[in-house]
Each structure stands twice: as C-alpha cells, then as structure tokens.
Amino acid sequence: MTGSWLDDAVLIERCKKGDRDAFNTLIDRHSQRAYQFAFRLARNQDDAADVVSDAFIRMYNAIPNFKGQSTFSTWMYRILTNCFLDRKKKEKNKQTVSLDASPKGEESGASWQLESPDAGPDQDFERLAREEVIQRALLRLPEYQRVMMVMFHTEMLSYEEIAEALNTPIGTVKSRLNRARLQLRDILSENRELFSLD
Amino acid sequence: MNLEKARELYSDYIEGTLDSAMRAAFEAELKRSPDIQSDFDSFKGFYGHLNTLCTVKVPVSLDIEDQIKQKIDLQVWEAKRQKGAGWFRGVRSAAFAAAVLAIGAVGVITIRSHSMSANQASVLPGAANGPEVSAVGGAVTFKMDPAAASSIVVTDLTTGKLLERVMIPAGHPVSVPLANQNDAASAISINVEGTSHHRIVVLPGRNPKSIMNGKGTLVSFAKALADTFLDPVCIVDLPGTAEVSWNFSGTDGRQNAFQTLQPAGLTVDRTNELLRISKH
Fold first, then answer.
1. How near does any CA of chain A get to the CA of B61, in Å?
2. Is B175 on the interface with A (CB under 8 A)?
3. 3 state DSSP class of B189
4. Per-residue pLDDT tens over the stretch B172-191
5. What DSSP designation does A64 have?
6. Contact between B59 and A111 using a beta-carbon 8 Å cutoff
C-alpha cells in the first residue's frame, strides 16, 4: 500500500495524478466508516455495501475535480447520501410492496449491539429494546431527515459539517433536524413506556 | 407563542443556542403554559435517548474494501475496453476479410502436415480460465475469464513500450478486440503475471508486404507469416526469441512455413482464422 501515513489532502493530490494506490489508501482508511453510515441508513448489509461501492466509484471518477473546499470525509458523506437517496428513489419507482411490509433490513439478520455499559441485565435489556425501537422508528422518517438524524446523532457530525455535506444552509439543517426529532418522538409515542414520553 | 412556535425552539433551547431574548421568551412561555411545559419535558427526555444512538454498534463488513476495489478495477477495465481499438490502437485491418479461409464454422481445424493429438487439442483456446485469442469473421479478440484476480501486462514488441497493466477481477470475463493500424505487421506480448500464460499476438499490417525469405526471431517469422498470408498469428507460451529462417516460396507456401518450425520442435495450427505457434 502506498502512503498509508499520508494526510487525506496529500493522497487526493496523488489521486489526481493518477496514483491508484493513493485512492486504495483512501478506501482502506474510510470505507468502514462509510459502511457503518450506509448501514445505519439502510439497515441492510447488502444495500449498505452497494451504496458504499457506488459512492467510492463516484468519488474515484470525480476526484480529479475535487477542489478541496471540504474535507474528504465531508465529501464522502455527501456522495454516500446522494447514492443512498438515488437508490431509494429507484426502489420507489419500481416498488409494488404492500403498505404494511416491514423494512427490508428487519429480516436481514443484522443485529444491533450495544457497547457494554455498566448496567445490570434488566437495564441492558431495556436499553437494547429502546435502541432497537429508535432504529426502527428512524426507518419511518423521510430519507432526508433520516440522513440528518444519523449524521448528527450517530456520526456525531456538527451542524456545520452536515450543512456542508448536504449543501444546505445551516439554519435549514437545524430546523429540519428539530422537526425530525419531533416526528420521531411522535412515532415513538407507541412505545412511551420505554421512553417516559408522558 | 403557541405550541407550534414553541416546538420550533426545542432543540435550540436544549443545545443552548438561543439568544438571550428568545431564551427568556421561551422560558416565560413554559411557565405560562402547562401544555407546552409538558410537551417540552417529553421532548427533552427523548432528546437524551437520542444521544445514546452513537453507542450502538453496527456490523462490520470484512471485505468492503475488496468489493470497492474490485468494482473500480472492473469499471476501469470496461472504460478501456469501450474505447474500442484496444492494444493495437488502430482500426482493424480490412486485409483480414480477404484472408478468411473457407473453413468450418466451429471447432479446431488443423492444416499442418500431421494431425493433432487429443492431448494437443486440450491446450487450444478454450482452456479453462486461461487467456484465449481467437480470430473469427475478420475480428481478432483476446478473452480471459480468470478464476482468481489476474494481472496482465501488455507490451508492444516493436517499440518495447508497456501498453497496459490491468487487473482483471475474478469472475469478470473480459473480451478485448485487437487491431493494427500500422502499415506492417505488429506484435504485442500479453503476459499473465505469476503464471506461465504468455501470448504473443501478431496482426497483419494495413499495407502488408510479403517477406518470402528471411531469418530472424520467432516474432520476425510470425510477422512475415502474417503479412505474407494475411493471417493473425498467436505464439503460445513461447518467448519469441528463438532464431528461425524461412522460405515461403514454392507450390504450397503455407506448408513450407509450417515445416520451417518443425526442426525447432514447434508446430503451427489453425483455429478458424488464427495461426497458432506452440510447442510440439
């Protein structure tokens, strides 16, 4: 592998000169994070892998035009988001499933695991149940809101970074995220015993 | 301030980003309206739960890096393939059409002086996963369907210039048309790295001149053969540096050509329009 110690910006410059090894280093460095983001959006391992592959191919093709006005990872989030939304749009165009069909990911066998907090078995169980319910509820949000929620609450991006990644004014990001949280809370009101929403 | 207006401020208030005047107005509203206070408390509790989402682990993909790299390899390969001309960087010679012989539609046809054994037939084009060169209907094509990712190196033997070094992913068969736009016959070497697979492909030129007599390397011989009889030639798993002399004159020039190589332990077979030079 070439340049695994190099900064992203240096690797990008090398990519622009046709250094394929440099791009491979960027793949090695960022693909797992990209996969986790995509999985959180899609909740399906195959879909996540496809989204990530598509995104990196787009990046590979577009890197000669990358101006460096944002970091590589912010750019990556933007392209991942576009790939995810494009995929969803295509799915909707050919979708004929019934309205009560469960999200694809719920049958994928993918499990969500918590890092082990210092809590007893009952608390662990309750916490697991709560996280699972939140994740399912996230799937019921419009895709764009879901993207923002995942960026902010799981990827821990700042409002500024989200605004940059989505090419959206920061005020719009904040107001949409606030609305998404309110909507998510309303969805979760079915499980108010887990969340003390009363 | 009604409930809807108050709700717009929930996140900003919790995150402490409201300016002082707005914060004061919001807090006053919370005191004034039990409904808003209750709704806000519910939201605040929920917001706390959201902050635990980052602790949720998701599955790790063990091969995502390889999947991405393989797809990019494939895309690069496809882009190059669609450029057309391929490694000879030219338009396929019209001379091929005149050179097509009236042979069977399928199968291997040998026109050398002795018949081909079953053992020899097994190493002709079509061997599993190895590189394959074919010439049908005037089109010369390099094909490969590797069982494992394979790196191939293509070199122009006239200039010694490296033309391509390409990774072919496993399970992605490739087919590359070969053409020659030079006036005289041209030769390229196609080497599958890490294996004994090696092909030298010689295509007749656009304005070929017969070289009936000569002496030189096997590649020179193949060029003379190609330009004299207007047939593409493929040298299979041989270095191409062996010294040979040839004389194509006589009543049956082709047979003379084939017999030229017999003392060197080599044979010339014909598969459709392709002449193949290989070891006995």
1. 7
2. no
3. strand
4. 777 777 877 788 888 888 88
5. G
6. yes
H-assigned helices in chain A: 8-16, 20-42, 45-62, 72-94, 121-138, 143-153, 159-166, 170-188, 192-195
What letter would DSSP give residue A132?
A: H
CB B168, CB B174: distance < 8 Å: yes
Please report the number of interchain residue pairs, chain A to chain B, with beta-carbon separation below 8 angstroms.
111
| CB neighbourhood size of A141 (10 A) | 19
Mean pLDDT of each 10-residue bin along chain A, 198 residues long: 74 90 93 93 91 95 89 95 91 55 34 37 64 84 93 93 94 95 88 58
B12 and A CB contact within 8 Å: yes
DSSP code at position A164: H
Half-sphere exposure of B148 (CA within 13 A, CB side): 4
pTM higher than 0.80 for the full model? no
Q: Which amino acid is at A120?
A: G
Query: Which H/E stretch holds residue B141?
Result: strand B139-144
Closest CA to B53 of A96, A21, A159, A146: A146
| A32–B42 CB contact, under 8 Å | no
